[in-house]
Design a protein that fits this description.
six-stranded parallel β-sheet, alpha/beta, seven-stranded parallel β-sheet, Rossmann fold
């Protein structure tokens, strides 16, 4: 039987969502994967896809936009991208469109997709306060006319269904994000908490820093906080950190090759968000079997089990956060080993690549059979 053809579109910033999945689908589908690279600050390079060379049923097309959005040449370059995507869609039985609706340009690209055979991803179920006006407008215009939408969180899917009751929504959790094997071991000089990802307001990094400051001032020793990512909040690290000896601050885009050791050498991953849809950074921590401390937001509650693969604190409550961190700092080596063991087992049972890809195949087959 001939395999069905899928046109799969991913921007650079979501490659880590799709890369674990695609190689496990080519046994049943022929996939043309179009990867859109921005004009700068790429997370990935073409060389990162070399391990996928030679996989039967997979063709990768790289598209580099080359120019800043206000450069007059950008318009003509983006038109070529639209043409490429639309041409490949016409050759395919199904389209998987994992592109954030933001700015003006994706609107025209999106509106030209064949709705009867297109699955569009949505990472948020409602318009968030941090979204630009143009993004909010696109949400209102584009999602109501979709036929099929895939989401990654039940809580966000519930919001989406209330706001956009028309599309059929399928929820599949984000796959684990694997950046390779670490070469370092768990550090032994202290208990350490690692935060990873772009540092913007909803990540609430100032709360984490202040909790660490206060723990140190309360006399707690033997811990460090490692904060890694592009700094996009008003307060500087220098302003926030009163005790340099307990902080390891690495500002800027974290290279992919650094990520495995970042998680391997630290004791816990910590995410102090005050707002979130779902966390890709959480799936990086899970990939390296790292227990987590997270705020008690619905998106986290779907994926973290208290005492099994991590601990909760009350969102935006510094005393609750300090209590969770203190419990981890004072935990015995034996109890920590048991926590890592239960974390590893939980993650394997829930996020095996076989389970995730089976859900993608079922979603694709449901759409193909309904056409």
């Amino acid at each position: 039987m001939l395999k069905k053809k899928i046109c799969w579109v991913t921007p650079d910033w979501f490659v880590d969502v799709d890369m674990p999945i695609i190689p496990h689908l080519t046994d049943e589908y022929d996939i043309t994967w179009i990867i859109f690279f921005p004009w700068r600050n790429n997370r990935f390079k073409e060389e990162d896809f070399k391990p996928l060379e030679g996989i039967g049923g997979l063709r990768i097309i790289f598209f580099h936009v080359k120019y800043y959005r206000r450069d007059p040449r950008y318009f003509f370059r983006y038109r070529k991208y639209e043409k490429l995507v639309h041409e490949e869609c016409l050759k395919s039985d199904l389209v998987y469109f994992n592109v954030t609706l933001g700015g003006r340009k994706p609107s025209k690209l999106f509106l030209g997709l064949p709705k009867e055979k297109t699955i569009v991803t949505a990472h948020d179920g409602s318009i968030k306060s941090i979204m630009s006006g143009s993004t909010a407008k696109l949400y209102k215009e584009c999602y109501p006319i979709c036929k099929y939408v895939q989401m990654f969180s039940e809580s966000q899917a519930s919001e989406f269904r209330k706001n956009y009751p028309g599309p059929k929504v399928k929820v599949i959790p984000l796959a684990l994000k694997d950046y390779g094997q670490p070469t370092e071991k768990l550090r032994t000089d202290c208990v350490s908490f690692v935060s990873f990802g772009t540092i913007h307001a909803e990540k609430n990094i100032p709360l984490l820093i202040e909790a660490a400051n206060q723990l140190y001032e309360d006399g707690i020793r033997g811990f460090k906080v490692s904060i890694n990512g592009q700094w996009k909040i008003e307060e500087s690290a220098k302003e926030l950190c009163r005790h340099d000896e307990i902080f390891e601050i690495n500002e800027g885009l974290v290279p992919n090759e650094v990520i495995p050791n970042l998680f391997a050498r630290n004791t816990y991953a910590i995410y102090t968000y005050k707002m979130m849809s779902q966390s890709g950074a959480l799936k990086v921590a899970f990939n390296y079997n790292k227990p987590v401390i997270v705020s008690d937001l619905p998106g986290f509650k779907e994926e973290v089990k208290e005492g099994v693969n991590g601990f909760f604190f009350h969102s935006q409550d510094i005393e609750s956060l300090k209590s969770a961190m203190k419990k981890c700092i004072l935990m015995s080596k034996e109890d920590y080993a048991n926590l890592v063991k239960s974390t590893t087992e939980y993650i394997h049972d829930r996020y095996s690549i076989e389970s995730i890809t089976a859900q993608y195949k079922q979603m694709f087959d449901d759409v193909l059979n309904e056409k």
